[in-house]
């Protein structure tokens, strides 16, 4: 029985365990679109948390890049997301 008191079909388990084979397609519409192999490869890497030391290294590199782009040596240069 499921949570509504209805009987669960016997074939449910086998259906849920059957893998879905999706052939590779070229998506030409406005979205979703195909990912580049580099993006797919990076998605398989371990997740980096916002408090990991490696994340702070990335932030430092972004800061250096922003300081170069805006030609500043201000130590409070930050990359901040926000609307507008």
TrEMBL record:
Question: Does the record bear Ribonucleoprotein in its keywords?
Answer: no
- Co-factor(s): pyridoxal 5'-phosphate
Any one Gene Ontology cellular component term annotated for this protein: peroxisome
Q: Which UniProt keywords apply?
A: Pyridoxal phosphate
Record GO terms (molecular function): alanine-glyoxylate transaminase activity; L-serine-pyruvate transaminase activity
Top-level taxonomic group: Eukaryota
A single BP term in Gene Ontology:
glycine biosynthetic process, by transamination of glyoxylate
- Is Cell wall biogenesis/degradation among the key words of this record? no
What is the name attached to this protein's record? Alanine-glyoxylate aminotransferase
Q: What organism is this sequence from? A: Allacma fusca
